[in-house]
Write a structure and sequence with these properties.
With 343 residues, this protein is an alpha+beta fold. It is built from 10 helices and 14 strands.
Length: 343
């Protein structure tokens, strides 16, 4: 009889708590776009391991509209992941992307980042400057009939890890990433001149299996000369075109750090931009009035390779194993410490 009374009491307490549980499950209040009506979040789901009492708010400058936006953390990360990584990728890769994106964002926020181009915001929606951000409307256009399935997949991945971040010496790192490496990632010191101990060259040989790993760009002699002289009128492009390019300095990963073109020294990154190359890991050959540029990888090559992460996930790697592989000497911090401190 005593046991029956205790059981009834427990059931009573449980039933009384149900409204509170239901409220907590839908209580984040996140709207997927600042312009969406309340409650119109098709991917709304209960936060799991990353749930925190104090939600972080990111100030994001919309480079298309010229407006500053205040976006809740979960909402922001969902739309960054959706814009930065194919939704068809493995869930563990999407989780790794979510942690990297959140880490990058809180690094910017906690450091008070501002370079004068963000209207006082720590982030912008320009993928070449900060991180891409796709609105719900844009995602519906891109995904079409797959929108519901893809959106739920990304929301589920984000919810499993939301609030977790990577740290080095106790501080959130600059968790940069790129699409596809040349088979070995680049160090930040070689690409940007900033020596971050967690952004060093690591193996990413699985990337060589990806379609598009190698790309080829051909440039006529006339076009090459025109482009270089528009860049610098000091370029001396007389004589044999085979001798226009020399003194190429490469990183350990194979990317071009600096090169001499007609007496003008420029970085591999600048040459990449001038000729629309997918990366700065390239070779140049001249024959029959044409420069043939063979390129490996896609992106700056520093940090996590997104395609490499996906292939690691296909081979059974978990999101934390992926992250600890690409970012050297870091810790994966639990959101149990709270993310409100970044607000």
């Amino acid at each position: 009889m005593k046991d029956k009374v205790i059981l009834i009491a427990i059931l009573g307490i449980y039933m009384a708590m149900l409204p509170l549980v239901a409220f907590a499950a839908g209580g984040s209040g996140a709207q997927i776009d600042p312009g969406d009506p309340p409650g119109n979040d098709p991917g709304q789901s209960q936060l799991q391991s990353g749930q925190a009492e104090d939600e972080v708010i990111f100030n994001v400058f919309n480079t298309e509209t010229g407006e500053a936006m205040e976006i809740e953390g979960r909402e922001y990360i969902i739309h960054v992941v959706a814009a930065e990584m194919p939704a068809s990728f493995e869930s563990e890769a999407l989780k790794a992307q979510a942690v990297a994106a959140f880490t990058y964002a809180v690094n910017r926020k906690s450091s008070g980042y501002s370079d004068g181009t963000h209207d006082g915001c720590e982030l912008c929606t320009d993928s070449t400057h900060c991180k891409a951000y796709a609105s719900t409307e844009r995602l519906r256009e891109i995904w079409g009939d797959d929108f519901d399935a893809y959106y739920k997949k990304i929301c589920d991945a984000v919810d499993e890890v939301y609030g977790q971040y990577l740290s080095y010496d106790g501080e959130p790192i600059s968790a940069v990433f790129h699409s596809l490496s040349s088979g070995v990632t680049e160090s930040s010191a070689d690409v940007w001149g900033y020596d971050y101990p967690y952004l060093v060259s690591v193996d990413s040989s699985l990337d060589r299996e990806v379609d598009g790993y190698e790309s080829v760009v051909t440039v006529s002699r006339e076009e090459f000369e025109k482009t270089m002289k528009e860049y610098s009128n000091k370029c001396d492009l007389e004589g044999d075109p085979e001798e226009w390019i020399d003194d190429i300095v490469r990183s350990d990963a194979g990317g071009v750090i600096t090169m001499n073109v007609g007496g003008e020294v420029l970085t591999g990154g600048k040459f990449r931009n001038l000729f629309g190359l997918r990366s700065a890991n390239f070779t140049v050959k001249y024959s029959k009035e044409t420069f043939t540029i063979t390129v490996h990888g896609y992106g700056h090559g520093v940090g996590m390779s997104q395609y490499g992460a996906n292939l690691m996930a296909k081979e059974g790697a978990t999101y934390d194993q992926i992250l600890l592989h690409y970012y050297t000497g870091v810790r994966l911090e639990s959101s149990a410490k709270g993310i409100g401190k970044f607000s």
